[in-house]
Amino acid sequence: MFFNDHAPPPFHVQYAEYKATVDIQLLSISTGALPRRAHELVLDWAELHQQELLEDWQLCMDKQQPKAVAPLK
Fold first, then answer.
1. For the chain, how many helices (H) and strands (E)?
2. Residue 18: strand pairing partners
3. Nearest 5°: phi and psi at 64?
4. Between these two residues, 20 and 61, which has the higher pLDDT value?
5. What are the percentages of helix, strand and coil residues in the chain, rounded to 5?
6. Distance in angstroms (rounded) separating the CA atoms of residues 59 and 67
7. Across-strand partners of 12?
8. pLDDT at 73
């Protein structure tokens, strides 16, 4: 996430040479691409942490430090 990022609320993913932006509200990749398995794992993780991600996005919009979210395991 970045301060003053655009709406809808996104987070950014980088996996090897792949990059993607995930829409937190829709739980879908809005730009870029990931390999199929990484795509599935990222969206499953985002669904589990959707509320935390939305709260962190709001903190970023308020120029506050976002809280840590448990990593993908």
1. 2, 3
2. 15
3. -115, 155
4. 20
5. 35, 25, 40
6. 8
7. 21
8. 77
